[in-house]
Amino acid sequence: MGNKASVRDVVTTAYQADRDEGSYLPPLDLVKYFNAESRKAALETKIKDGDDLATPLIVAARDGKLDVVKFLLRYEANIEGRGTIKIYGQVIEDCTALWVAAAKGHFDVVRLLIEQNAEVDRRTSNDSTPLRAAVFDGHLDIVRYLVENGADVNARNNFNGTPLMLACHNGHLDVASYLVEHGASINLQDNDGYSCLHYASKQGHVLLVCRLLALGAKQTQTPDRLTPLLDASNDCKIEMVECFIKRPECSKEQRIDALELLGATIANDSKAYDIEKAFSFMKRGMEERYEDPSCPLLKKKMEPVEAYQNRTESQTLEELSLLEGDNHAIQMEGLMIRERILGTDNTILRYPIRYRGAVLADCKKYELCVGLWTRAMEIAMNCNVPKTKELEDLTDLFAHMIQKGHSLSSQTIENIFEKLIDGKRKLSEKLKSGELEEEQKNEAQETLLFNALYLLVMYTKVQVSSEMKNGNMIDLLQRFLCLEPRTRDGNTLLHLAAWHKTPVPRDTVANWRGVCELPCVMTMKLILHAGCDVNSVNAQGNTPLHLAVTFVPEPEQVEILKEMLELLLDLGADTKLVDKNGQTVMDCCETDDARCILSAKGRLGAMNIEAGKVRKVRF
To answer: Do 266 and 281 contact (CB within 8 A), yes or no?
Structure first.
């Protein structure tokens, strides 16, 4: 007995019997009649069940079938064989029978496998060990047994997490205590800088936090400068903050920062917002500062920020009391407090700033909103965030303001465009250093480029045409073009402005209707006036003119087509250039109107190019 079909049939029948009747030992008993080669094949055949794909031994270990595990091991099933198992909603690849048994809490199976010399620290594809698997669901008996048999209590997974961190995240006080008592390092940090104390605090496990502190856990910082205490304040976890600040190891400075950050965040948090509670925590922090009037702990003074209306943070109880009852003033105080405590180069600052700006926008206080979102964008770019949500939100807000007839100055758009240039410059530096993957690079570059286009289109809506050439936008645009921005398809700003298929933001189409309609002749003039090459080609060899002639206008849009093509031709667009398909501009024309315009202008355009008489853009 021993062909491959019969081997597969036996294993499948055994598995099905287990599912239907609770025992797959009788069918598997046939394995002992196989020759050595067929038996090995049978025991290594993987069974497919949904997301699971595993050997009979792993399946038996998963299901806690001790007799079956014994039987399979007797016939030399590979104790270190690998499989894929879905457990607790996660698909785990390259797990062993020991890992699965530990995860499912089958102590007898774990003990048998260890007695049969299963490797105690054999890792899965994401570097999870059997000990980590046992810790997840709090199987203390298995945790104890694995540690007694040499399991590494500080084994790191692919995110540098340890079993102790997992125990703290899931709130297993007994498991965490045992691990620490048996050598687990209590102050290790993972890739995000989180320690076991961070995880216990984050999940609100107060008793576990107290136990960890008693065992010597420290207030280590993440890269965002968040200790477990400040993280609790930043998450508006009042009970956890109170727990921390009552501890004898908590210094006065730590208490003050925690109380002030807690109040500042509550004042600008969408879920925890309570302005009276926010003010009360700010006040408690200030009272702590002046507990000893002869030696108060003064705040570090910060430079006023325009986005916060150039306010300065309160320095005394008297100054703070003046804010009581003024919700907006308390909210701005909160944003200033957050910058002082967390640092102005911290991306965590962005979210409350964005939320406060959104609330102001809903109240039609657009100028304040623009200031706050601009501040959040500055912080993001200073932290080298390649793609900022604030930039997209601002362009969307501008479109809404224009559509609804609200005042929007060209200077406001110029200011955001200047920030965009800074973002593009920093992105170019990151690209040169190889810090971004290809997809990240393309997405970040296109986000900046498309938003630059949208800002330019809106600029032409709010700026008087005759004044455009005198504005700062031309200088800004020249700086932007020097950075050679292109889409992944090689399209320049001019390509995008001339092409009717250039997308506008899909999620906010209502805001953009009637605001950003492409092609846009005025935007093309602006781009050309700044020096964009009229004959630049994209990855397909298309010039802006190649794309422009594909526009099929409605009757009322024919004049747009005419103005666009004449503009490009007057400025030297070469009708003889061919794309990668060997097509000239004339070959790409979608309408007779386009063909007529090209025919009428072609000869004159060629003569002008030869004579060096290409016209300058006239607004």
So the answer is: yes
What 615-618 contacts at long range (C-beta under 8 Å, 24+ apart), as own/partner pairs, is 615/570, 615/571, 616/529, 617/525, 617/528, 617/529, 617/567, 617/571
Query: Helices (H), strands (E): how many in the chain?
Result: 32, 4
For 201-254, the pLDDT digits (tens) are 999 999 999 999 999 999 999 999 999 999 999 999 999 999 999 999 999 999
Provide the 8-state DSSP code for 618: -
Closest CA to 339 of 371, 307, 316: 307
Q: Are 541 and 580 in contact (CB under 8 A)?
A: yes
> What six digits make up the tokens of 357?
């700006």
Phi, psi of 607 (to 5 degrees): -65, -40
Model confidence at 506, pLDDT cuts 50, 70, 90, reads low
Report which of 288, 305, 306 is spatially closest to residue 297, judged by C-alpha positions: 288
- 3-state per-residue secondary structure call for 541-552: CCCHHHHHCCCC
pLDDT single digits (tens) 471-499: 689 999 999 999 999 999 999 999 999 99
Closest-CA residue to 488 (of 446, 548, 450, 546): 446
CA distance 30 to 33: 6
Tens of pLDDT along 12-33? 555 554 555 444 444 556 566 6
Q: Give the global pTM.
A: 0.87
More confident residue, 403 or 35: 403
Kindly report the backbone phi and psi dihedral angles of residue 83, in degrees, each rounded to the nearest multiple of 5, phi listed first: -155, 175
* Angle subtended by helix axes 473-481 and 438-462, to nearest 10: 160
Q: H/E element holding 420?
A: helix 410-433
Tell me the C-alpha distance between 52 and 105, whole Å.
18
How high is the pLDDT of residue 502?
Answer: 94
- Exposed, middle or buried by CB within 10 Å (0-12, 13-18, 19+), for 97? buried
Q: List, in sequence order, every residue forming a beta bridge with 91; answer none if it has no partner.
A: 86
Q: State how far the alpha carbon of 429 is from the alpha carbons of 260, 376, 425, in Å.
A: 37, 21, 6
- Pull the structure tokens for residue 275: 């302005």
Q: Identify the bridge partners of residue 83 per DSSP, sorted by sequence position.
A: 95
Residues 525-554, mean pLDDT to the nearest whole number: 97
Instruction: Write out the H or E segment, with its range, that includes residue 52.
Output: strand 52-54
**519: cis peptide before it, omega within 30°?**
yes
Q: Which residue has the tokens 């010597």?
A: 216
Buried b (16+ CB within 10 A) or exposed e, 348-371: bbbbbbbbbbbbbbeeeebebbbb
* 56 contacts 45 by C-beta, under 8 angstroms: yes
C-beta separation of 582 from 542 below 8 A? no
- The DSSP result for 293-324, as a single string, is TTS--PPPP----GGGTT-----SHHHHHTTT
Instruction: Sheet containing 83-87: give its strands across.
Output: 47-49, 52-54, 83-87, 90-95
Give the ranges where 22-105 is alpha helix by DSSP (H). Answer: 25-28, 36-44, 56-62, 66-74, 97-104
Strand pairing report for 52-54 and 47-49: antiparallel
- Give 53's strand partners: 48, 84
